[in-house]
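Holo model, zinc ion. Inputs:
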Amino acid sequence: MNKKFQIKFFGIVQGVGFRPFIYRVAKKLNLKGFVKNRSDCVLVEIETTQSRLNDFIEEVKKNSPPASKITKIEIKKIKASRKFSDFRIIHSEKLNEKSIFIPPDIATCEDCLKELFNPKDRRYLYPFINCTNCGPRLTIIKDIPYDRVNTSMSKFKICETCKKEYENPLDRRFHAEPIACPECGPHLSIFPEIQDGLSDFEIIKKCAQILKNGEIVAIKGLGGFHLAVDATNFFAVEKLRKRKLREEKPFAIMVKDINSVKKIAHVSEIEEKILTSSISPIVLLKKKKNSIIAENVSPNLSTYGIMLPYTPLHHLLLNEIDYLVMTSANKTDEPICIDNQEAKERLKEIADYYILHNREIVVRCDDSIVSVFNSKPVTLRHSRGFSPAPLILSKKLKKVMALGGNLKNSIAIIKDNFLFLSPHVGDLENPLARDFFIETEKLMKRITSVDPEIIAVDLHPDYFSTNYALKKYKDRKIIKIQHHHAHITSCMAENGLTGDVIGISCDGTGFGIDGKIWGGEILIANEKNFKRIGHIEYFGLIGGEKAIKEIWRLGLYFLFKLGINNEIIEIDDKKREFIKKMIEKNLNIVECSSLGRLFDAVSSIIGLRHYSNYEGQPAMELEAISLNYKGKPEIFKDIVKGFNLEPYILISHIIDMKKRGYSIEKIAMSFHFSIIYGFIEICKRVKEEFNLNRVVLSGGCFQNKILTENLIMGLKKENFNVYFHSKIPPNDGGISAGQAYIAGS
Ligand code: ZN
Ligand code: ZN
Ligand code: FE
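Output:
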């Protein structure tokens, strides 16, 4: 007996090719009915028997599209009002049925690639080929719902052939909103123009030639422009560094294919999977010795940031040249360029040539960055390919918007049990980044249809985002959240945790509730409150913020405090005198408990470097040299005092090792392992006293693999349940998510 069923699919089921998939399954099983998008789910009605219904559900569960994630299926019998004559896809017309699920951009799929390089295909060598399974999404969307009219493809009138594909439910391009072909779609141009009437492919060939000549090309991509140079050409890379005002910060590399990646870096199975995934992020990979890559691409570090081509334009270009530096097109700290005119103005002192196209980029989106910790992927920059796919929370929370921190800013919105994290915004000290922040706030409100009553911000009184909210949202409830509490809850949110946990929150800088700079914190935290139970004991930042770049200030500070006046740090006497005076007069010394700053101090004391050229550089280099040490590290067990770590004792051990003539590799490794030992010891003491067994790690310092992997393993050995990040970055890019989780709770 046939009955009529209504089935609701919840989760990430919209904008991911779910309806055509349902259509194909229904056709295959010869079912009649319809499928349509609702604001909260995908709704299916079919008329069939119970056993056929079961087949249908099984098939959907088993083969659902790769970008989708079903979290719940509701099935109920309904009254048959009319008979279905076939199976149809019904389009949502009603405004209140607008879907809030905007899909992220997807790397070019295998099927499109085959067509791209097939001379018989009508899209042969066409740099804008895409289909339902791949292509631009978020970056071309102006408004919801996600239909072609609401994207920057609306200005391209679809040709008859494309239209047929678009309307055929059995075609791979059925409802592929950015569908295009050489006849009707976007095209490339080159500036300055070298020759009239070049085809797209000829432009790409020219571009490759220009790059091989060592010049810098700005290339318009998916979420913004890249600046490209030949990654094997030292002088080209050097030229880019000079013009971009980026002395040493590593550049990302785009590599032709996975085999070419393996020539320059070690790639594990899981790393290969991430590299070749539809997200196609930059993956941090261990360098191979004597690689062909110029040494100034990623100086003094043990890793390269590598990605594979993810647009057809990239595939065509990398077919001509194997290794390209592909770095966000901007001056240091500015947001990535997206507009042709904007690029020509802002990059005029950097780029020699521009590869442009006439498909507008609507949403700025940098490349995402992923690194693998203990065989698990961790997102370090959440942007293209990830955003705005929501994180699914364990329960429904209040509607809130969180405005994030100051560095690596991002914005988060919670609606029901979904947490939407914006693309990476960047450093809000920069005026252009502030404009981008405001742009992103609008975007997030628009695509989620949320106008929140509650706004969460950082406790820091001087943060741009905090003051922006206080001015703009006078009539709303504003919740100020302590930075390190937000770090811990960001990690709790993605692990579905509630209730008290031991939180180890370590980073460079965050504003503490006592007005001091925190950054090495042991918290007992839950999704609403926290108590600071321990920390790295305070030490002084001489000159406050200045000490972040001029890390010799920290090194000398410790020497004087410890009464060591000999020449253990090679540095000019003026600086010594200066620090001495500052300490004697107690001038402009800001107290801090930051692990990041402790890394800086150690770097300076062991003579690795006295200046930091970019955020995290001293710590990254300290990690890199530690990896060269193969012996047993020394562990300074006497640094644990109650629930605190004692930095002066730690530093005196380091100075002692230096005096005894140990290699800086061994000293660096001993520093790492002493910190690890200290945290494990403190966790044991906290467990003893408070009976807590769950440890949550978060904060920028946990981008350090030695620290994070060994701390996780050590804690597990002591039978703790340890939680770390996966989708939400451990650095300040995740702060907004943590703020939202607290405010929503
Ligand atoms: Zn495709
Ligand atoms: Zn066409
Ligand atoms: Fe932080």
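The longest helix spans residues 664-690. Residues 159, 161-162, 181, 183-184 surround zinc ion (ligand 2) (CB under 6 Å).
Archived with the compound record.
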